[in-house]
Structures are given as structure tokens and as C-alpha cells.
Amino acid sequence: MKKNVLLSFLMIFAVLSSAWAQTQAVSGRVTSAADGSALPGVTVLEQGTTNGVTTGANGEYQLSVRPNATLVFRFIGMTTQQVPVDGRSTVNVQLATDQKLLEEVVVVGYGTQERRELTGATAQVTSEDVANLPIVGVDQAIQGRAAGVQISQNSGTPGGGITVRVRGATSISASNQPLYVVDGVPLTTGDFSQLGYGGQSVNAVSDINPNDIASIDILKDASAAAIYGSRAANGVVIITTKRGSANKTQVNLNAYAGTQSFWKEPDLLNAQEYTNIMMEAFVNDGFLSPLPEGEQYTPADFLDFYYGEDFEPADTDWMDRITRDASIKNYELSVSGGDEKTRYYVSGNYFDQEGVVIGSRYQRYSTRLNLDHQANDKFSFGASVQLSRSDNNRIISDNTITGPFANALAASPLFPVFTNAEGTEYSYPNFYYTNPVAEGTENDDETVNLRALGNITAKYMITPGLDFQVRGGYDALNVEERRYSPASFPGSFYEPQGGQAVNATTTVTKRLLEATLSYNKLYNDAHNVSSVIGASNENNLIKSASVTGEGFAGEQFRYVSSAAIVNAGSNSEVESSLVSFFGRVNYSYMDKYLLGVNFRADGSSRFGENNRFGYFPSVSAGWRVLEESFMSDINLLSELKLRASYGVTGNQAFGDFRFLGLYSGGSNYLDRPGLAQTQLANPDLKWEETKQFNVGTDIGFLNGRINLAFDYYIKNTDDLLFARPLPSQSGFSSVQFNVGGTKNTGVEFALNTVNITNPGNGFNWTTDFNISHNKNEVTELYEGQDIFYGFGGNSLLLREGEPIGTFYGFISDGIFSTQDEVPAERAVDRDGDGNLDTQAGDVNFRDLNGDNIITDEDLTIIGNAQPDVVGGFTNTFRYGGFDLSVFMQFSYGNEIANPAREYQMHLGAYDDNMVADVLDRWRQPGDVTDVPRATYLDENQNNRGNQSRFVYDGSYMRVKNVVLGYSLPKTFVERYSLRNVRLYAQAQNLFTFTDYPGFDPEVNYAGTSNTTLGVDFYTIPQSRTFTVGINLGL
């Protein structure tokens, strides 16, 4: 036995000795192939093992490996090399710069450019940024990921609109949305809904499946965007969809499902709290006598006193009754592949998002085919086709006092949902508001979008470097809307009419034909010329029709054809065209000195005959300083580029026929049909014009491990379109005119870093960060006159020297704690009802003109909606098969006006329910609080909407997306003939850090309104979303 043990030890020792004898020491030096300099920090790894080291300060390394081993050399910004040892003891390696990294392609107008030669200001969002997010439209994917681009989701309604501002708002009356270009075709955008749903708008960009996107490039300055001329003043968003490649067929399946709920619930009063405040208001104003101490009025007492009703009061949580945990799910399948001749990409998608508020839901069905074919050495063609259908069950909401959400906030908790035990008869919870549950369940509102988007391109190579291309594009959007409002519940506006039905159809068709000639040539290995010239013709046709009927025999009859009375109808047809000539020349010398020139001439049918054509040039220059010989010894830098640009762009997005004299019917005379002029002509009308100057720099450190970009811009817009007032004797109130201007100045900073990369243990950590500041200013108005507008009166202001979105009102200086604090001039009984105009417990409005009374002379600027800075940052971690991405988005310095607080904190002036903040109200002399007393008469107008008490700090930091994924090991998935399997969980709007007391700091009144910014009036908040999903590749 002992001999066997000894023999075993000797055999093990012999094997170990043999194995030890089979390893050898290898040393060497790693240098740069470009200049021979040493490369410290290079990872040297024995392939197939975790055995590795990093090079020292002189690029040297030493490692023990097997004689037949292969060494892997990796370094950020360099091409990875695999070198067999072959028994050698010294292995020296030169690593070349990763040209793929340096020559990253950026999509620009009518072509592409290598990033290193780019002289304009752009930003890019990749398919990895978009993948797996529970979003409807691609514009949501840009939010917080691009410096200088401010994006806000107008509300939490499914399929709702998005506000996008690239370097601030330039216009007051025209659109401020950017131009979207999909695979070379300008996308039809805008809200074509004919039916009113409060401030809710339809997002046209949501028809595109986000996971069909390969990249999104945002052109921000004039040098990048000027080639799109009269439509580029607000920036250009170029969307490039995925295409097939010449390899084995790949099948990708992505599916996720989850749930949504409000991230913040409103805190409303219950029945007794509501009764206490309402009755206290009547006691304070002398309508009721106070009860003995320890006693309180009951909800039944209030119903009898206020409504004259004697039913049993309820304690209804209306918000709980109209909200739900809503589902969200997405399924998509794509197939791509091809050979050297033909390549294809095919996808199908189904997206389904319920709204948290009952009655709302958004569904999308889409399919896409992208095809490319190389017919011969000279001729190639391609085609892209997308078909989509979206079904949007809409509810009246956002910026309105009707609809289930607003009514649930306002409805008295004393009323029940139903008045009978069977739950078939709805109660009437106020004499102004309808039943919120009935609003969400009985109304039938559906909008169906049908879209066909596509293009065909043919390209012919005349000679090497000289190509001729023709593209035909088509975008057809059909919007069908149907609304049925029954007479089945009390308080409905349509109850006495027997119900109402509306059918509306809008068809928008765009046809594009363009031809380009491009030339690319490198002369003497020094002079690189890239150019394109072209012409395009674009035609747009909008047809719309609607019909309204009232009086239905029963609720099973819901179409206008069944109505007793067809009492309204309309139809229209509008056609516009744009003829353009454009060109661009880019020149570089020795990859050091860069020059770019763009030009576009646009002829538009939207403008008067004296200004039918507009001309939009730009010029830019760049200097890649690091390529100079005097920089050759600076190893710290991997890129240093200075750039500057100047150019002119335009804005024509303000409708058709503005320059014409218009007539309309209905002006009958002596019982005969007649026409009357309704708009004066202005043949000099032209586009709004934006001149932009930009300087910037791109800097890279440590072989691309750290990259930053900095830009400063000045953006002046002139010739704004306004309704210029006319003397009353002219018979017209105004005429369309080019007058007015705005200015935006700002800075942008973007940084991306590779913080840790360790091939040995597979841990990687990268960070992307951007921040931007934009200062907006109105520089000119007609004759310098202020313009007042806004909800419920003059609550917003346009004034020279102030930004768009300036809030105007009274300054609230706290609450009068005692009567002694009230100025004598205000403590009077002006209407003789025995109540003083201002009493202890009332709001102390600041007296600006010193007359000790509060009048319109005391109105002033009380805030603005423009943020000081916006931005976002993403941290991505990878370890083994795990990946974790955390994206945060922020806005700082903006203010939000919430005129809905006039009703939510009315303290007895209305019969709406109230938020719990009113529990801190003033109740007796000496109380110190910021909430005034309860009063029904409210003679001091404590709750007027336009006051600083209802203007809040809207700054916020939001954990927008958190994604945790796990990819199954290759050895496992290949066993089942799979390419990859990844499981993931995702959270959206996980946390929001803000001092804003409203429901959501990310708001924008009236959809994409230019002027009514940052106003929150019963806006549905965004949802917190949790999903789980799978990515599977074959």
C-alpha cells in the first residue's frame, strides 16, 4: 500500500514537472505603428486563459506561457492583434490605430462624413441607445442623450406628443420642431387631429418602430443643417434604418412585457376633510354660525346646505377609480442577410400600451422591408418600405377642465360613482363636472393612423469617385377619427341632444423626386475633395373632411348615418410644393485643414410672389491640430480639432395661404349666397430666417479613452411671422407680416469615457455625459409692444429682452398673520357685504406702485419656463455575461406655472376637491403659513391663477432608464443552434428628485405650443414602468 502511494506521488510530480517544463517566459515591447512610441497599459493575454499582464511605462511586458500559445494584445483606440508565440522568447508588436474608430461615419444631408473630418456641430444616438426601451417614438430615445437638444414628453398619455427643441425656440408663431428625415425622405410630422382632446396631440414619429433604427444623427448648427434650407432653422434629425449585410441569415427576436403606474399619486381630501374646509369657508364669510368647540359639520350637512341634496354621502376616491396598473408589451421579429449581390432586412412589430387612466390605449402594428442590390460593377439600387397602423383610444385630457383625469381631481368625494346598487346609473358629482368613471368608460374615442413610408434609389457609377443617384420618396398618412359621446350619464354636454357622433378623416400625401451627383477624389495623397450637387421636387397634399350628427335612438347606433340630425360638416384640400437646388463641397488637406461649403435655394408655394425663393448658404472650417508635426511628442492626446461655422437657415412651417387674400362663404345678402374677404394679401411675405455662428473643439485623450466636445453658438432669428395690427377703419384686425426676432446663445459639453476595461476578468465601465445651457431672448416685437396671452387671462408675456415662456402676474409675499399687518387701504368693505376686501389670513400681494391697493399696475414678471441647464448621463457596466445601464436625465433652473392650483387650493371658492396642502391653511390670528384662509367669497382673490404662489421650481433629476441584462454563455446557446440569448429587466422613470409639488415636472401646456411653455394644467403625469424581456438571435 505504501509503495502504491509513493508511486502515485512520483507520477503526479513527474506530470507537474513535465507541465512546468512546457511553459516558457516571453517578453517584448509594444509600440505604436504610427510613430514607434511606447504604449503603456496594453493588455497582453494568453488566448483562452486568464493569464495576462499589462505593459509598463516603456511598453514592455513579461509573461510565462505555453510554447504554442497565442498572445492577444488589446488597447483602447488600437486594432487588437493576435500573435502566435511559436517557441519564441521575444515577441515585439506594433499596434495600429483603429481606423474604424477614427473614421466613424456620421450621416449628414445627402451623404456621410467621417467624424474626424466633420466641421459642423452634430450629435448621434445609436441603435444600442434605443434598443429594448419601452418607448413609442424614436424622439423619446434622444431625450437627455444629445447636448443642446431639449426634449420633453408633453404628458403621460399613450402615443402622446413630444416637444423637441434643438438649441432653443426660434419662432413664436411657426413650428419649433426639427425636420425629420428617414432614409433620405423628409417625414410628414405635425398634429393632424381635427377633434379636440385638450392639449393632447398625436405623435407622428411614433409610427416608426424604434428597434428598426440603426442611428439617429442630429444636425445642430447651420453648417450641418443648411443643406436642408428653409426647413432647417430648428435643426435636422436624420434617422437611418437598419439594412442587411452580406453574411449568414440572422434572425432576431425581441419581446418584453410589463406594467405601468403613476410614479406619484395625488394626495386629495377625504369626505370629512373636504366638508370641514368648505363649511369653514361659509363660517368665515358669515353664511353659517360656528359650531361649539369639539363639534364639526358632517358631509350630509354640507350636501343639504350647498346642493340641497339629502342622499347618503359617500367617501369616493375618484383617482383610484379612474386609474389602473396598466400593461405594456412589445413583440418584434427581424430577419437580415444576403450575399455580395443582394442584401435584405425585414421586420415586423406589435406594440401595445394601455394608459394608466381608464379609456386610453395605444397599439401599433408595423412592418419594414429594406432591400439593396448590386446589379453590376456600376449600377445598384435599393428600396425601403414601411407599413404601419396605430390604434389610439384617446380620452379628453391635458390642459382642460374636462375628461376623466381632470374630473377625478375636481369631483367632490361626497358623491358615489353610481346611484344604484346595480352600478348602471352614474351619479353627477358636481354641477359643473361630469362623472370621471363615465367619462373614461362610456365615451368611444378612437384614432387610427395608417402610414406608408418608402423610397426607391438607383445609383450609377459614371467613373470611380463620380456617382449619379436618383431617389423617389413617398409618405402617405391617413388619420381616421371617430368619437361617440352618449347621453347615458347625467351632466354630459350631449345628454339633451341625445348623444353626438363625429367622424373625421385627414389624408396627407408627400411625393419626393430628387437627383444628386456626387464626387469624391484624393489627389496626391494630400488633397481630399468630397462634393454633391442636386435638385429636388416635393409635393404635399392634405385632404380633410368631417361630419357631426346628434340624436341617436339607442347606444348601439354610434355612427353619423344613424343620427337624427346631421348638423355640421366640412371638407378642405390644401396643396403645397417645394422646388430646391442644393450643393456641398468638403475639402481637406493632409487630414489637417478642413473646409466645408453648403448652399441651398428653395422655392416654396407658401410665400408671396415677391419672395418665392430663398437662399441658404453656410461655410465651416476645421483644424486638426494634433496632425501638426509640433504635436508629435504629445502622447496624451489622441485628437485635437478646432472648428467654426456660420450659416443661414429658414423656417416655413406655419401653414399655407398666409400671403393670399382669402374669402369665405356665409356672408349672405338679401337671402342670396355671398362671399366676404377674411384675410388681406401680403405678396412680400417670406420665411423666417435664422443666422447661426458656432465655434467648437473635439478633444481625445489616452488613445480614445476620453473624448469630449465643446460648442458655443449664437443663433439669431429675424422676420418672424406675426399678425400685425391694423386700424379699425380698414375692416380687418390684422395682416400677416414679417416682423420680430429672437436670439438663442448657448454652450454645449459632451463627454464619453472608458473608465475601466479589463479583458482579464471581463469588467468594463463606460460613461456618457452631456450638459448644455441655452439663453433665449425676444429681440424684436412689432413697435416694441408687449404681447399678453395664456390660460385664464394675461398670465404669460412676450416682451423684448425677455425669454419666450415668461410668466406674468402678481407677487405673493406670504399670508397676513394678523389684521394689524393689513394696510388700511386694503382693509375696507368696498361692496358693502360686511366683509373686508383683505383680512388676516389673506395673501399679501406685493404693491409695486406704492398706492397701497392691488391693481393691474402691480403685475410683473414672476418667472420663466426656460431651464438654465439640461442634460443627461449614462453609466454602462459589463461583467461576464451581465450588463447594467443606468441613464439619468435632468433639468435645472426652469419654473413651472400651475394655474390648476387655483382650483386645487381654492379653500371654498369652488366646489372642487382639493389637495392635502390646504390642511396647512391659516385658521386664526397669529398662524404663520403659506396657505391662506378658507373663504367662499375670496374678495382678496387669494386663489387667482396668475400669482407667484403658483409658480414653482421645476428642476428635476430623473432616473429615466435602468436596464439589467444577462447573456447566456456561448457554449450553452450554440448547443441549441442559437447565436445569442439575453434576458433583461428594465425600469423607466424609476425615481424623480424634484421640489415641484405637482404631479410631474416634465410638462408642456398645449402640446408643442411655442409660447405657453412650462404650464401645468391637469396634465396626466408620466408612468413608472417595469418590464422583463428576452433578446434571441438565430
TrEMBL record:
One cellular component term from this protein's GO annotations in UniProt: cell outer membrane
What keywords is this UniProt entry annotated with? Cell outer membrane, Membrane, Signal, TonB box, Transmembrane, Transmembrane beta strand, Transport
Q: Which domain of life is it from?
A: Bacteria
Could you tell me which InterPro entries the record lists for this protein? Answer: Beta-barrel_TonB, Beta-barrel_TonB_sf, CarboxyPept-like_regulatory, Plug_dom, Plug_dom_sf, TonB-dep_OMP_SusC/RagA, TonB-dep_OMP_SusC/RagA_CS, TonB-dep_rcpt-like
UniProt cross-references to Gene3D superfamilies, sorted A to Z: Carboxypeptidase-like, regulatory domain, TonB-dependent receptor, beta-barrel domain, TonB-dependent receptor, plug domain
Q: Where in the cell is it found?
A: Cell outer membrane
Entry keyword annotation includes Transmembrane: yes
Give the way it sits in the membrane: Multi-pass membrane protein
Query: Where does the record locate the signal sequence feature?
Result: 1-21
Give residue ranges for domain TonB-dependent receptor plug. 115-236
Where in the numbering of this chain does the TonB-dependent receptor-like beta-barrel domain appear?
Answer: 406-770
Q: Write out the similarity annotation.
A: Belongs to the TonB-dependent receptor family.
* This protein's name: TonB-linked outer membrane protein, SusC/RagA family
Lineage start = Bacteria, Pseudomonadati, Bacteroidota, Cytophagia, Cytophagales
